[in-house]
Amino acid sequence: xxxxxxxxxxxxxxxxxxxxxxxxxxxxxxxxxxxxxxxxxxxxxxxxxxxxxxxxxxxxxxxxxxxxxxxxxxxxxxxxxxxxxxxxxxxxxxxxxxxxxxxxxxxxxxxxxxxxxxxxxxxxxxxxxxxxxxxxxxxxxxxxxxxxxxxxxxxxxxxxxxxxxxxxxxxxxxxxxxxxxxxxxxxxxxxxxxxxxxxxxxxxxxxxxxxxxx
Length: 214
Known about the structure:
By secondary structure, this protein is an alpha+beta fold. It is about 40% helix and about 15% strand. It has helices spanning about 5-20, 45-65, 110, 120-125, 160-180, 195-210; strands at about 25, 30, 80, 85, 95, 130, 140, 145-150, 185-190. Strand 1 and strand 2 (about 30) form a beta hairpin.
């Protein structure tokens, strides 16, 4: 289920990786941020933030019984956010949809002071029921055994050998952060990238070397 708290954490991580995750390049000692490396790819994952912000705004309106925006339609695979079409299928995979979405606002006066369940409000504002988010860097496992993932792409403009070195250093540092530092159950970060694969292959070959000694 696309719990708001999971999306909130995904957005927080995205902003952290973009702007605050500082990495030191081993060969030079230079300290770098991803926003200094991404070039034309800096906004590759911005849809996740747009969707979360719109979802939160419509959620609060529905919860309070206020009229929702006529220029926002949180449907999958193409949502309309503030009048613009936004493709969600590029970041959200394995989505399960509701059979129908209630387009009418719930009335806060009819509900009185009762707490409306998050799931009930979600059914009114989006047709997404579950998201099996295939996400390079963040996986979410809930108690219903649904494997939820958000897919993010972090890539840079390799214009020189030094830039490639920086990107490789950032990728490896992110992998170490995901496997050694980050803890926030039930969320897990998975990092996939060419430098990580390369290093793992080297480790495997080193482990297998004794078995091939002539």
